[in-house]
Amino acid sequence: MTGTSTDRILRAIVVGYLVLFFVYMFAPLIYMMAVAFNDSRIPTLNPWRGFTLNWFVVMWEDTRMWQSIWKSVVIAFWVIVLSIPLGLAGALFMVRLQVPGKPLIYSILISPVLMPGIIIGLSTLVFWDASFDIGGRWQLSVLGQSSFISAYCMLLFMARLQRFDPTLEEAAADLGATPLQVFWTIMVPYMRPAILSAVAISFFQSFENYNTTTFTIGNDNTFTMYIVGKVRKGVTPDTNALAFVLVVATVIGGVAYELVRRREMKRAARRARRAQQADEALVATPTPVAQPAD
Amino acid sequence: MFAGLREAVRRFGYGGLTFILGGCAFWALFLIVLPNLMMVDQAFRPFLPRSEWGGPKDVYTIANFTLALVDPFNQLIFLKTIWASVLVTVVALANAYPISFILARGGQSGWVGILMIGLLIPFWVNEILRSFAWLLLLARLGPINDLLLLLGIVDEPYPFLRQDMGVIIGLVYAYILFMIFPLYSAMESLDPNQIDAARDLGAPWWRIHWDIVIPHSKPGIASGCIVTFMLAAGSFAVPQILGGTRSMWVTQLIYNQFDAINWNQGAAYGLVLVALCLVFVLAMMAVFRVSLKDIAK
Amino acid sequence: MKNDLELDRVVKRFGDFTAVHGVSVSIPQGEFFSFLGPSGCGKTTILRMISGFIDPSEGEIRLAGRNLAGIGPNKRPTALIFQNLALFPLMSVADNISYGLRVRGASREERRRKADEMLELVALEGYADKRIDELSGGQKQRIAIARALAVEPAVLLLDEPLSALDLKLRQHMRAELRALQRRTGVTFIYITHDQGEALAMSDRVAVMSQGRIEQMANSTDIYNNPETAFVASFVGENNMFSGKVRMTADGFGVIDTPLGTMRASNPRGLTVGADALLFVRPERVRLAGAGETTAHGDNGGRNVIESEVIDEVFEGLAVNIFMKNPKGRPIAISVTNDGAVPVLHPGERQRASFAAEHAILLPAGRLAERGSEKT
User: Fold this and answer.
1) CB-based burial of residue B180 (10 Å sphere; 0-12 exposed, 13-18 middle, 19+ buried)?
2) Are strands C330-336 and C318-324 parallel, antiparallel or unpaired?
3) Is A93 in contact with B251 (Cβ distance < 8 A)?
């Protein structure tokens, strides 16, 4: 970079813009979290009435919250149980099967990702209720959420499957493995990182889902519905205490996920380096097997 | 076709193939196609108590759609939702473009990695909490009004939350990251030498963007716009939290019908919304001359 | 009955395309047999049919007299070494080697014992617990062989397993493979487009082209006595002249070429009037002495061709001389470097000379495409 004055001005504008943007991204969250510590019945920092942790106690002691969390966990569990196999089936179909009509099937399976969540909720409810007269219930939330969470899983699996070397399966079969053994000893271990990511993402997506769930759940209450309920009926700062805990948990979880991912990438790079060194060492040393036997 | 299936049997066995085909069939049929067909079916039927289903009054009708499209109040809400979603998309694009460009030009430097994590953090926080944060900021006695009063810009607190303004601010905040990430990944793949070459040839900055950066990032721009628009138009929690009682969004129109157990009417509203969104998406694809394949990248 | 492998009029069609046209081969147990040919000649298809990944459209593949039709790759007593080796990246070296035993339900101790035994065989003791991505190219090669041999196959199939290695390692591994095959006594069926590999290692070689076997013989015969124009042009370097047969006698033939008549051996018994190609190896050609005439034919003289030197390339062991004849066609001569090779200059007039018994007449036919296939 040359140090002309236009460049300096440009730099200042760029830095200023970045700072402003990040203030815009973070200030609302920080304000929301800070309010939790104000000893005031109204959720505000102005006026400041002194530091308190009382709102965390109020938040913690609400049994309805714990019930709604439990319900969300149950739904998320079943969403994972359903979405991982469906996503895997979809990905195998897309990447590994040579049949016509794949683009159409792909469009169908991926369409729930773009579809507004409330439409998914409504169609799920209408279909199952009209067919079986069962009304809204948490099982329908599982089905509704799975329709698009399976698509996220499928995309994750497809990305990894596309790098899969099919000769590994052939090698296993050639060594005597049945198709089932090939699946469990070759495919599943290969897919394990993607499956773990998919479990994490499915849980996260299901747990924070609001739109589809609201339409399908009937009389039950999930954690996000509980939060919306609190936000809409006259807010007290115990909601902020809850928000504080959730943001901190999200940040810790997200940063941990990101750090693990980066460490894995570094480790792979290190292994590749070591392999290259081994190669150089081998060429230098002849081996006894090269000589004819006896 | 049969050759493909025979090869699949050899590879996955009958059990494996059953799992793959059965899984896809269950997913496509019971979670996607049949529910949507049923919703279309219901949208064309009148709202009746269950005892009268299949009875003489249960005939196909377009009354639900007529109500959605002809009623002036409904017309207003549909128009407003679409218009506001376009506005949200444009504002998000205008802000995401420079941010993405700066980050993409940063290349592999360490600060880009830190800023990317910095962007991911608000992205991970639930949109309900992010709307809640703005509910506090935009409140009648909240810090933004405090600031505006202090600066003398307004004489009395501005009622953000009783206007669509609050919803639009909240939607931009909630979905701008869905614009940044596709833009960033499209711009990141641009060879920096192209920009340097253009600058070297004397192109002014706006020409560099118009001739090089924008054409290259077109798929990213298109997919960012489509996703942002769809999220805004289909947003439910944000208008519910920030819209107050006076600001109506199509999703709330649908929810009110759902609440009144008139799913037939709700389904019709929903289909109109989906149809309008589809028109927008197709228009975007035509404007940017991109196909679904480009966007999926 | 011994584990002899037979291919009986095997045909493979993919849609309208016929990849293999009625190939019949009989490979006795313990032989090192190679299929040699350019890419697309059908050799890989044959390998995949033997290993059971695809079924023949017609014909039978028999092992020890038993038809293998309908038996999947996981139930065949064959083992395949893949071109990219296909080692399982998430398993240790020992787990890779003992995979075949694992899927057969062998105990942990048994698997460990086999892995150690195989590692000893390929001289990689102590590597059992390494990860695959810690191995070098040559080490991976040996682990792939160990893994395949661990299931004690009757036939080991190798699909160009050396192609990923650099030249030095490749030559080293040739010797290693040959030694391993002798020691274990397992039938090796080797697929390659590299004639050097095939000729150096094999007991017998089948040269393939367009789904058919052109010639099947030991390495010496493939090189010295090619039976078709394709084999002559594919294996090794060859000078070629085309013409019509004018007369034949005593196993020799004389052809008319644009450069005059030439005489050569006629093993295929070409008759007068037939279109023929004359092949002669560069190492069988030399520069003509001053006394040599251009006479040839019944007087037993040599074939002599007036030429012009293009270039002389010194390669250490040999010196290659490239010339062109009056019609502009190239002639290559390879002379052993005995210290008395004359220094030639481009443009110099010289005469190339070769004996009739060193040249061979073959029926005109399709030739191998020169270029990337040669190494």
Assistant:
1) buried
2) antiparallel
3) no
Contact C334, C298 (CB under 8 A): no
Q: Which domains does chain C have, with CATH numbers?
A: 5-224 (3.40.50.300), 237-363 (2.40.50.100)
Cis bond upstream, residue C38 (ω within 30): no
CA distance A14 to C195: 63
Q: pLDDT, tens digit, for every residue of A160-210?
A: 999 899 899 999 999 999 999 999 999 999 999 899 989 989 999 999 999
Closest CA to B195 of B114, B104, B297: B104
Radius of gyration of chain A (CA): 27
- The rounded percent of chain B whose pLDDT value lies above 90 is 37
In the DSSP assignment, the letter for residue B55 is S
- Distance (Å) of CA B150 to CA A294, B144, B145, B147, C291: 98, 10, 8, 5, 116
d(C-alpha A23, C-alpha C97), whole Å: 57
**Domains in chain A, please, with CATH?**
75-229 (1.10.3720.10)
CB B187 within 8 A of CB B104: yes
Instruction: Measure the CA–CA gap between C267 and B264, rounded to whole angstroms.
Output: 90
Q: How confident is the model at residue A282 (pLDDT cuts 50, 70, 90)?
A: low
Q: How many CA atoms lie within 13 A of A56 on its CB side?
A: 9
What end-to-end distance do the CA atoms of chain C give, in Å?
Answer: 40
Domain boundaries in chain B?
70-296
3-state secondary structure of C141: helix
Which has the closest alpha carbon to A200: A48, A84, A286? A84
Dihedral in degrees, nearest 10, Cα atoms C244, C250, C251, C256: -20
SS in 3 state form for C158-204? EECCCCCCCHHHHHHHHHHHHHHHHHHCCEEEEEECCHHHHHHHCCE
| pLDDT tens by residue, A61-111 | 889 999 999 999 999 999 999 999 999 999 999 998 888 888 899 999 999
CATH 1.10.3720.10 fits B70-296, yes or no: yes
What's the predicted TM-score (pTM) here? 0.82
Candidates C126, C141, C51, C40; CA nearest to C87 is C141
Among the partner-chain residues B241, B254, B277, the one whose CB lies closest to the CB of A122 is B254
Q: Do B39 and A98 touch (CB under 8 A)?
A: no
Angle at B109 between CA B296 and CA A13, to 5 degrees: 90
Nearest to C26 by CA among C3, C48, C53: C3
Residues C161, C138: Cα–Cα separation, whole Å: 11
Show which subunits contact C, needing at least 3 CB pairs below 8 angstroms. Answer: A
CB contact B148 to A (< 8 Å) = no
Q: State whether residue A74 is helix, strand or coil.
A: helix
Q: Which chain A residues are closer than 8 Å to B116 by Cβ?
A: none
Cβ contact, residue pair A44, B139, below 8 Å: yes
CA distances from B14 to B6, B22, B296, C266 (A): 10, 11, 32, 58
- Binary contact (A29, B125; C-beta < 8 A): yes
Tokens of A112: 């729930």
pLDDT digits (tens, 9 = 90+) for B149-203: 888 888 888 888 877 888 999 999 999 999 999 999 899 888 888 888 888 887 8
Q: Which helix (H) or strand (E) holds B214?
A: helix B214-233
- Rounded CA gap, C269 and C272, in Å? 10
Q: Which of B35, B133, B141 sits opposite A124 (nearest CB)?
A: B35
